[in-house]
Q: What sequence folds into this?
DNA sequence: CCAAAAGTGTTGCAATTACACCCATGG
DNA sequence: CCATGGGTGTAATTGCAACACTTTTGG
């Protein structure tokens, strides 16, 4: 038996935390379908290209970072697959399957508009989630799934460090948790948990006073893949 | 820009627990490529068909249950998407993207060989995981990912009930956990956790002596989607 | 009666929370 | 000296593992 050929695309949920706000990168579509509407950045997988490779290419096009090329010395961006969406009729161009990826980036310079985007902007996640009609295609569902994944993974993985610069303070790390989860955390207990959890963060010895008050130690992400014990919400 | 057309398939990781053994349904391929080798059941997505619909169709073909048709009164089988695999070169027939699904079924009658399968058998999961060369394509990776997902979800979701018949005892439920995790659990503490966790299981009043000894209460799965608190491994 | 499996009570350790308190800087 | 944020100590509580013990059947 032969197969029915289909289009395969990747869509990206690029998340960041800026000044205590949890935001997603959206584009205003410059070409049909859904021209002029907000959507997740994405594009078709090319013939010889792997799925993650496509996602990294799109990420680089939109943000200017994270291309997986050996030639690039850009910071390593966290990128993971979330799910695949393939209902017939989800794209008016024909039968298109979309593999959604979640990317977590630190505070970045202004986003760049890609080829199919009239413009690109950081928008607060909560605002978009509260308005199911805001996004084109089935992108509201994709965003919902990706954000849920991110929120869950903060608990048991060191993923939050992906939102931070190379060097960060415990407060900055806590700010990530507070922004993503949308709840305040006790700074004193958080400090203990973050620093005592094996392999989560490693102290650099240096300090900074960029947040005012007593100088804070600087840390880099550790080597742990999972957090024991996990950080809990609430 | 137009897209490069590709084949889209679903592959199924169908898991069950039989007599304390955690097993996966494999087929011996009856057609090329990889004719004669073991593989996960799967097949191409048809033109007007949704991804999950394809998975349910394949599941019904292999096991005779769980088709999503309204006409079917077969039991509802747990089916969830795991991940999508799309490296160029993973399938010699051309560029094929495969969406992997995880299905959990209760102890079932003998499996049926589908159209592309010479035969189908239940094989212990541990045995297959220990032998990376056993499966065709990249199916060892898919199985690894799916089993990891299943093991993790037992902790915080009522998924284990999907391996049980409609009515089950606490011991039978514990047997599922022990088989999937591969470790023994304290029957007394497990009983408390399972029955005290809100919405996990609901007592039916009836009892059974099918396991010997004192009669055990029968339960049905509850309505909870997540377990609070979770059941922990170790 | 004994064996086997179901189910309950209790105890002690470990993790977590809530918050009092001290530290180090800038203004 | 005060405000601000960084960081430590500690008591009350909760959660959980370990295991003694009781219950209800079959043989």
A:
């Amino acid at each position: 038996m032969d197969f029915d050929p289909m289009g395969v695309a990747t869509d990206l949920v690029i998340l960041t935390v800026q000044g205590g706000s949890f935001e997603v990168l959206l584009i205003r579509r410059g070409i049909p379908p859904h021209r002029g509407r907000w959507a997740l950045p994405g594009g078709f997988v090319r013939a010889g290209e792997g799925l993650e490779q496509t996602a990294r290419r799109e990420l680089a096009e939109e943000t200017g970072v994270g291309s997986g090329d050996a030639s690039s010395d850009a910071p390593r961006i966290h990128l993971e697959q979330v799910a695949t969406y393939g209902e017939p009729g989800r794209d008016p161009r024909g039968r298109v399957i979309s593999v959604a990826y979640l990317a977590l980036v630190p505070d970045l310079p202004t986003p760049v508009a890609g080829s199919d985007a009239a413009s690109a902007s950081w928008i607060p996640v909560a605002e978009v989630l509260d308005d199911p009609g805001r996004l084109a295609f089935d992108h509201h569902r994709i965003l919902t799934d990706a954000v849920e994944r991110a929120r869950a993974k903060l608990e048991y993985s060191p993923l939050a460090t992906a939102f931070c610069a190379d060097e960060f303070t415990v407060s900055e790390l806590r700010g990530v948790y507070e922004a993503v989860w949308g709840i305040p955390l006790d700074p004193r207990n958080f400090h203990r948990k973050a620093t005592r959890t094996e392999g989560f963060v490693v102290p650099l010895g240096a300090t900074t006073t960029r947040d005012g008050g007593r100088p804070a130690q600087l840390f880099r992400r550790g080597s742990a893949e999972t957090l024991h014990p996990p950080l809990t919400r609430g």
Observations:
- Strands of chain A lie at 7-18, 21-29, 38-39, 42-44, 78-85, 96-104, 117-124, 201-208, 216-221.
- The longest helix of chain A spans residues 139-156.
- The mean pLDDT of chain A is 92.
